Amino acid sequence: MKKEQVPKLVRFLMLICGAALTAVLFVPMWRIELDAPQYPEGLTLLIFTNKLGGNVDIVNGLNHYIGMKTLHASDFIEFTLLPYFVDFFAIFAFFVALFARPKLLYFFFFLFMAFAVLSMVDFWRWEYNYGHDLNPDAAIIVPGMSYQPPLIGFKQLLNFGAYSIPDIGGWIFISVGLISLISVIMTSKNNRRLKYGPFILIFIVSSLLGSCNAGPEPLKFGTDNCFTCKMTISDQRFGAEIVTKKGRILKFDDSYCMLAYLKTKDLPQSEIQNIYIANFTGKHQMLHVEEAVMLQSNTLRGPMGGNLAASDQIDSINKMKENFPGNNLLWAEIIKQ
After folding, report:
1. CA distance 269 to 5
2. Domain boundaries, the chain
């Protein structure tokens, strides 16, 4: 009796996975970008399977001032072991394509997923140790402050913004995980193999991309400071936020401060993901500027002299005009002023 085999398309996909994993050995897996006023071009730390790259020396110099250990590839056993693990999974993928046995495919998938989870846990542990195990005799000591970079996404560390994200090798790993998952689904007897596989892949990728989009944060009144004027945000009716494509959130106490910052061009338009403004009425939630109706009135007095109020309801804006006579405007009109 002929043994069960994976579909031919799955064999082809696993060949692609094997070749892609081989390429991981030559490209960075992860990147941590740092930006600060004194480094307008930014600093980058690249993590390969066997070494560190980017502005390692500059980052080490900065780490010294705040008591963090310097980074050296020789201090990490991971840089010795990781290339062997990558080679193992590349060869394993080729074996799955060659022998076409479903059990081999299933074993590859679960072993690969376990390795991915353990790798992220180890990366988090590494970041935690470096961010918390500080030299007590460092030149700069901020009581209670730690410097652990984010596992993924953005985090503010003193005057540095740290952005952590997969690089080419990391995205290859993610792609291999998705492809192997789809291969398992296509091979499983409990699913209609080829009919629904591509649609499931599209759904998973769309969900992952959607989850990476940063949204607005609730303003912490009396705690958060305005990015432009540095004043404490105190009036929940006038706040605003800019969310960058890297996930950084810039908060403002008044639309006046936000508009003033946008006019400086310090943050290129290409790096802006979304802009939000507080709902003047109701629960004062953050509204996307493209979906909000705005009232401009000289009788409105924001914390920094701003004259804009926003709402998600045109009826609310029209009612506000009884106390604040003015004009209804869209964001596209306001930004041109």
Report:
1. 52
2. 8-211, 240-334
